Structures are given as structure tokens and as C-alpha cells.
# Entry
Amino acid sequence: MSSFLSSSIGKKLIMSLSGLFLVLFLLVHLILNSFLMFDNTGELFNAGAHFMAMPVIRFGLQPVLFGGFIVHIIYAIILTLQNQKARPQKYASQNLSNSSTWSSRNMFVLGGLVLVFIAMHLMHFFVPIQIQGNVHDDYQLVKNLFTNGSTGLVYTGLYVVGAILLGLHLAHGFWSAFQSIGMSNIIWRARLEKAGYIYAIIISGGFIIIPLYLHFFA
Amino acid sequence: MADKVIKELTIKVWRQKNAKTAGKFETYKINDISGGTSFLEMLDILNEQLINDGQEPIAFDHDCREGICGMCSLFINGRAHGPDDDITTCQLHMRKFNEGETITIEPWRAGAFPVIKDLIVDRTAFEKVLQAGGYISVNTGGVPDGNAIPISQDDAEEAMDAAACIGCGACVATCKNSSAMLFVSAKVSHLAKLPQGRVEASRRAKNMVAKMDELGFGNCTNTGACEVECPKGISIANIARLNREFLSAKIKD
Ligand code: HEM
Ligand code: SF4
Ligand code: FES
# Structure
């Protein structure tokens, strides 16, 4: 078992399973957030938020989610460090732009920036709602962030950028996860790549539209 | 039609005395190279010039000079085997370059492929990976009669496609992680697809991957650059198969 987890393919398996778990989480997250746009009184979104705050979910699923993130990040660091070490002397000139996509070469940078975004995002909503517990109207909290006088536009912009970075991570990550598990071949590769782009556009587009909608129309 | 002649080229090339000394780039000028000259012939001409000037010629690997042995290497202008697809360096011609261009030539760069001299690297690591399982242990006899062992056309084709790997190392050289997964997956696949090789498939996948990891090749992150630069067009679908073979072998344990 230990030789399995320390092997290159074993580490990739952990990377891909944790990644796919996060992929699923994002889908749930987006569906809940879309409630922000369907009911301007905020009742629908608040109902969803209350559901997610139920003890089973809060104490049962949330630790799993955090665990998933931590595993994904730890293995991302291990893999990236090993990969840097595998080429002690770099090329003076290397042209990779015609043989691979930019996102595929910059997964660590993209993931790292997404992590910075997630940290900010947790400070905005998770900390006041779940740690401090002094929020009565979740909808209003979210809306205020994006509409507040001088900072509303800044945060709207930051959330749009965060969604774009996440989209780029997923544009490579989705297909890559299936390849790592071995669930790909010449035919399925094309399909999975397409599905990955569609998924990335839905997630990224969704998380871009919501803050824009709140800022300009709510 | 007469081939174009390039009047002058600047060659910026990595020179390194041996594995222990630090190397550096040197630049040389070369004149009147016809477009039909192969890249290695251009280096031959340059070397003759160097010898006539009393300097040491540039050491580079080569053997068949027809794209079948995998000896020639070279990272040319930032790409393994230079600016053309599906070829080895010996199949690259000077017509791909422009008048007055500076051509940068580097050895394969990977911790597992240390430089021996100038542009020559030690690719023994590939041999070690093969010795860890890239063979069939039993004597399978002479060539069997056609159709004596039924093998589907698709399987035979896929096995043959994977068997086209010439072990050149361009995949490792290109990969941003110096991963050897394309090479190892080709070697595992061409045997796993055929009944003679199937018997030892699990053991082979485990041992070859373990050796590959031990030798310091990086971890694959599925960028796909290897298959684009591979002179034999080995597909990364083979890497998915290697992942499958390895994971199912480990689960069975
Ligand atoms: C919601 C957030 C995230 C999702 C949905 C996600 C999803 C994924 C997926 C599906 C993969 C492909 C796995 C594979 O190739 O086998 C991946 C790869 C990767 N992720 Fe994330 N990720 C997220 C956050 C992060 C964070 C915060 C980091 C932090 C550094 C990160 C770093 C990486 C790296 C470096 C890879 C490439 C590893 C490799 O291909 O071997 N990701 N991610
Ligand atoms: S897989 Fe392609 S690039 Fe890699 S060693 Fe074999 S022939 Fe060369
Ligand atoms: S010298 Fe044999 S492949 Fe180039």
C-alpha cells in the first residue's frame, strides 16, 4: 500500500480522485448559488443556506470537503516539487506552446491562485456565517459584498477573476483526472476533453454571472 | 528546381567537456548550406570546419540516419528534434531554417539523462526500465503461423503502433516534468495487447513503473506535449492504458 501511494501513478490517482470530488462539490455549490438570481427577496437562497447548515452536512460533509481540499493541495505540492527536481538544468530555450495548452502547463500556478481566492472567499462568507454565527440574512450579506458603495465593484471584479482562474484549472483538470485513472482512450479522450470544456464553461460562466447580476441588477 | 542555399547561419551550441565539468554555449558561423542538407550533415560540415581550425569537433549521437534507431537526439530551437513534426533529428532538413537565423542546439535535459559530452546524454535509464520488465520471460518459439493465435485487427494495430517506439527520449526531453510515461506506456502496451505478453502484464507494469520512479523521471501531468514531439506518433492513450494496467495490478495485490 505504501509503495502504491508513493508511486508516481498512485500519487496521480489521489490527485485525480480528490480533484473529481471537488468537481462534484463545485456543481452543488453553483446550483445553490444560482438561487441568488432567481429570487430577489433572498428567501430561496436563505432556505438553501439553512439546508446546508444542517448538522449532518455541517459536521458530516464539511470536514470531508476540507479534507478533499487539503489532500489535493498537499499532493499538488509534492508532485510539483518532484517534477521541478526531475530537470536540474533547465533549457536555455524551450518552446512548448505548440505542443501543449497553457493551462496544462500552469496547473500549480492556477491552483495556487484559486487557493488565494478561496481564502478570501472563506473570509467573506464562511467565517461570519459559520464561525462567528452572527448573520441572520445570508442573502443580504452576499448582496452587500457586491453592491456596497465603493468596494462592491472591486469584489465583483475579484470574484469574476477567481471564476476565470478556476475555469482554466478545470479546462485541463477535468479531462486529466480521467486520464490519470486510466479511463480514457483515443475515442474517449476527445469526448472527455469536450465534456471538460463544457463543464469548465458552465462552472466558470455561472460563477461569473452571479456577482455581475447582484452588482448590476439585484 | 534548385534547392535554396542559406548563405549564413549562426549555430549556438552547448559544449561540455565531460559529465563532471560545467558546460557553456559556444557560437559558430557556417556558410552556404543547401536546403537539402540534413541537420546532422550540417553538423558534420561544421565539425569539419572546426577540425580544420584545430578545434575539437562537437560530439553528438547518431547511427542509422534514417529515423529508425533512435540514437540522434538534440533540442533544437526549443523543440525536441527541431522545428518539424513526426521526425527524428536525422530526418530534419535545413530548408526548415531561414537565412541568417541563429539555431540553438542543446542536449536532452533531464536529471535521469546526464550529459556525457557536448550534446550526448546517457540514456541508460531507459535500458534499466526495459530490464525491469520490458520483455517476455519464456521462450515463445519461432514466428507462429498466421492466424494460429487469433488476435483482433484492432489489438494487433494498437500493439504495432505502440511497438513503433524507438526509445529516443524525445518524450522525456520535451515533457515539462521530464516524465518517461510515454516511453514506458509504449513498452507496456505493445506487450499487454498481445497474448504472449499478456501473461506477465501486471508484473511488468508494476516493475517498470517502480524502476521509472526510482530513476528520477518526473510525474506525468497529462500535458500531452510528448505525443506531439514523439517522432513515431505514440499516443498518450497508451499512458491511460499504463495507468489502468498499473492500478488494476495494484488492486489485485
Ligand atoms: C475547487 C477547487 C479545485 C478543483 C475543482 C480542482 C480540480 C482538479 C482536477 C480535476 C485536477 C486533475 C487531476 C489529475 O490530473 O489527475 C486537478 C489538478 C491539479 N490541481 Fe486542482 N482543483 C482545485 C483546486 C486546486 C488548488 C487549491 C490547488 C493548489 C495548489 C490545485 C492544484 C492542482 C495541481 C498542481 C494539479 C495538477 C496535478 C497533476 O496534474 O498531476 N488545485 N485539479
Ligand atoms: S515514445 Fe516516442 S518520443 Fe518517447 S522514446 Fe518512444 S519514440 Fe521516442
Ligand atoms: S540516427 Fe537513427 S533515428 Fe536518427
Summary: The interface with chain B takes residues 3-4, 7-13, 79, 82-83, 85-96, 98-101, 104-105, 107, 172, 175-176, 179-186, 189 of chain A (CB under 8 Å).
